[in-house]
């Protein structure tokens, strides 16, 4: 169902008025984790100031260590909903188990399925049975074929609104947190009719690489870029190394807009 052979025209997904996959790159910014109303609202204000329509933030955090911050759960979803209503932003947030889906649906606009859950087939099927768009991230060590099959699980349950997100894969290279597989973007665009995003934050794990990798993503034809923004990354409860503070985000955004203009990407 996700194959280009099945449907030749690009899938376009309308999220809060943002048309994803229509040609011009979309942007998803927001903190790694929802920590407080004030924290999310500060980031929302900076996103809104750029005229962007979407915000991300994790309420259920899939952490490597069980002793690290696990997210605010339902409380976090309520914060996202409040910010969404106040700032008019569509909310993208990760759901980690089918058991949380029902309670989450009232608060969110897009279900994110994280890298660690790309082959959680029960979660894929449950998300596929909802009417919310799904942002599906590539697994830590998933091949492109496995990634496409994961999207197929979602669509097989009737949900056609799926965004694929390349977020780096595990290789022997330690200079970056993961290795951004940039050629996955045109391959996924050729093989499927779905919009393809690049998460520059989790693929690189390095603040200094966010801008060049975002440029690369846009230049190679990505439909969107995701990056993390926090009012004060030095005190963030997760991903301190790679979130942008708000002035850095402002510069990142403005530089990308100029880049797109120069290359007539619109
Ligand atoms: C995230 O986007 O919050 C996240 C945990 O990313 P990933 O699933 O790609 O590691
Ligand atoms: Mn993160």
Automatic annotation (TrEMBL):
What keyword terms does UniProt attach to this protein?
Answer: Transferase
Q: Which domain of life is it from?
A: Bacteria
In its UniProt entry, what is this protein called?
Chorismate mutase
Span covered, complete protein: 95 to 360 of 361
């Amino acid at each position: 169902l996700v194959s280009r052979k099945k449907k030749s025209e690009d899938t376009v997904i309308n999220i809060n008025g943002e048309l994803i996959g229509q040609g011009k790159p979309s942007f998803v910014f927001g903190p790694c984790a929802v920590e407080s109303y004030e924290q999310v609202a500060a980031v929302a204000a900076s996103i809104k100031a750029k005229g962007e329509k979407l915000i991300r933030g994790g309420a259920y955090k899939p952490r490597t260590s069980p002793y690290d911050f696990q997210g605010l759960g339902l409380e976090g979803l309520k914060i996202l909903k409040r910010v969404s209503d106040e700032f008019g932003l569509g909310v993208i947030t990760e759901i980690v188990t089918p058991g949380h889906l029902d309670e989450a649906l009232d608060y969110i606009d897009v279900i994110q399925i994280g890298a660690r859950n790309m082959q959680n087939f029960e979660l894929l099927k449950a998300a596929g049975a909802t009417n919310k768009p799904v942002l599906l991230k590539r697994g830590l060590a998933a091949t492109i074929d496995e990634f496409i099959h994961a999207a197929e699980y979602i669509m097989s349950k009737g949900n056609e609104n799926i965004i694929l997100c390349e977020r780096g894969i595990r290789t022997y290279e330690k200079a970056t947190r993961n290795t951004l597989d940039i050629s996955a973007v045109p391959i996924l665009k050729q093989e499927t009719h779905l919009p393809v995003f690049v998460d520059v934050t989790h693929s690189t794990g390095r603040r200094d690489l966010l801008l060049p990798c975002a440029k690369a993503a846009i230049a190679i034809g990505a439909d969107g870029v995701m990056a993390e923004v926090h009012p004060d990354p030095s005190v963030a409860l997760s991903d301190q190394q790679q979130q942008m503070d708000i002035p850095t985000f402002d510069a990142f955004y403005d530089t990308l807009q100029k880049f797109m203009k120069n290359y007539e990407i619109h």
